[in-house]
Fold this protein.
Amino acid sequence: MPVAVITGASKGLGRALAEALAARGWDLVLDARTAGVLEETAAALEAYGTRVTALPGDVTDAGHRAGLVAAAWRLGGVDLLVSNASALGAEPLVRLEELSPAGLRRALEVNVVAALGLVQEALPLLRTARAGAVMTVSSDAAAEAYETWGGYGASKAALDQLAAVLAVEEPGLRVWAVDPGDMATDLYAAAVPDDDDPRPAPASVVPALLRLLDERPASGRYGAPALLEERR
């Protein structure tokens, strides 16, 4: 069966995608920082009859990234690598005049440097996969200027550029940067705790991600709302 490595997979979009793939029979290697929540997620997904390896840790740790890829190798390789783990840089978000260099550095380390490091670790297996793909979770803050979203948006814009260049350098792979749109996630709640407007559940975005896997369009940046609208 195909194997996916998903970071930030204990809840939110990462868990929703992992569950959809498990239902399709994919084997999974899942990452998150909180061990207990990740183990609960893995146990729930194993009910689908698939093999699930849960490795808690920080994606900024090179040893942890190597462990994720080694676990995937033991399951048969890496067919899909999903960089979903994200850091805001400040919780709640603040204007740029207040953003600490340490906060910005953390956002860049998690959202950009760690994502590249994991790709580098997984490339030998991705290249040998029948249909290797990399999916990076972006944000509309990478393309639009929203007050207080400067540090996070800058990190996601950098991730978009890395994905675009990776697609040119690795034409044998599919590399998709995906803007999921608004979602009700813990990350958003931490970013803007006073905003209680209703937002779609992460599971509602998953069909857009599955469409990319099913139809394998050209590498590029895609918006989940547009993918969902086109399917109707």
